[in-house]
Amino acid sequence: MYITPTILPLDVNGKIYALQDEKGNTIGTGTREVCEVLLYIITKPASPSRNTQPLIPQRPNVRAAMAI
């Protein structure tokens, strides 16, 4: 049906829009701006993770983490 996700107007005035995927399924509705943001989010490439270490909070006082 569609090649890429598409933003289509839902009303005559053009105030409400729908974002549809490649198969014609509605992903979301809202203003044109909302649909454009959703379209950007679903079509942007995934960014690689820069930090591979788990985030472990560092405590200056080791005793605070120990059960006494």
Could you describe the 3D structure shown?
This protein has 68 residues and is an alpha+beta fold. It has a domain at 1-45. Helices cover 18% and strands 19% of the residues. The chain has 1 helix and 3 strands, in the order βββα. The protein has one helix at 32-43, and strands spanning 6-9, 17-20, 26-30. It has a 3-stranded antiparallel sheet with strand order 1-2-3, covered by helices on one side. β1 (6-9) and β2 form a beta hairpin. The longest helix has 12 residues, at 32-43. It starts with 5 loop residues before the first strand and ends in a 25-residue tail after the last helix.
Write down the Rg: 22 Å
Number of helices: 1
Structural class: alpha+beta
Mean pLDDT: 82
Topology, number of strands: 3
Query: What distance separates the N and C termini?
Result: 66 Å
Low-confidence region ranges: none
Helix content: 10-25%
Rough shape? elongated
SSE order in H/E notation?
A: EEEH
| Major beta sheet summary | 3 strands, antiparallel
Strand order of the largest sheet: 1-2-3
| Strand-residue proportion | 15-25%
Note the main attributes of this structure:
single chain, about 70 residues, alpha+beta, 1 helix, 3 strands, about 20% helix, about 20% strand
Set down the secondary structure blueprint.
Elements: E1 6-9, E2 17-20, E3 26-30, H1 32-43
Antiparallel strand pairs: 1-2, 2-3
